[in-house]
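Bug report (template v2)

What were you trying to do?
Predict the complex of my protein with xanthosine-5'-monophosphate.

What happened?
Run completed; filing so the output is reviewed.

Input:
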Amino acid sequence: MVNPDEFIEDAIAEIREEVGDAQAVIALSGGVDSSTAAALAYEAVGDQLTPVYVDTGLMRKGETDEIRETFSYMDSLRIVDAKERFLDELAGVTDPEEKRHVIGEQFIREFETVAEDIDADYLVQGTIYPDRIESEGTIKSHHNVGGLPEVVDFEGIVEPMRDLYKDEVREVARELDLEEIISERMPFPGPGLAVRVLGEVTEEKLEVAREANHVVEEELEEYEPWQALAAVLGKATGVKGDNRVHGWVVAVRSVESRDGMTARAQEIDWETLQRIQSRITGAHENVSRVVYDVTHKPPATIEYE
Ligand code: XMP
């Protein structure tokens, strides 16, 4: 990227030229990529763009409200409450790739409904360079909105950030005056908390994961990790009050990285780790243990599934 200013000017011109007078649609996830792409496209074509935010119930704490507020200047914003439908579809599904598949399919169904309703010709996507590289390989089937072009018959797909790295997207986001909560936000996987609870997705596990991820993001902010997260691993014995409990084990992970393709586990001081432990075990009666993950990528991945 030459510089953010020039990039923005070129990207807006490109989007205007491609979309013309037609209707466009973008899936807004709350992450920095789709938010930046939406802001660019809105700048380019205004209300001809309908940003669609699907509340899957797998989002971070407070995320839906933040989206509603941050993008309230876009009159065409649509927020779809699909929490129950996602949980229903995920019931009984334990295999990680199958989970991604189910979520991807349901997402497409929700999105398709809106795209057809507004008769959208163009799909804008916040795809960035590492997404293209990873999806060419076989590392993991990335849900974002990868399957959409095959399902909805769009006239064209616009990917204004296809050659950018994550840190360049953040520069663009800052230049566009996107709120810090978005521009500085850690990457979050498309399938959301579903890949941060091992095995079947249940409301209880999601609740534990949502609160634990909130604690971890808050407590580790000063370490400026590329990504800090918590995952619900399974159950183990513990003691709470006078009782032995069979409670959830929560793993905490914090990594440095440039593009997510490789990563180093961060060294965190003991006091901070203990504060995280105490907040997470205190937040939910059924959490008995918190562990810290010291594994780099490779051999581990950043996410747990
Ligand atoms: P892994 O776990 O493969 O993650 O080391 C690398 C980066 O990709 C994110 N990630 C995903 N993003 N859909 C996404 O949109 C996915 O299915 C997915 N899986 C992992 C992960 O959060 C990290 O930033």
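What did the reviewer find?
Residues 138-143 have pLDDT under 50 and may be disordered. The CA atoms of residues 104 and 143 lie 6 Å apart.
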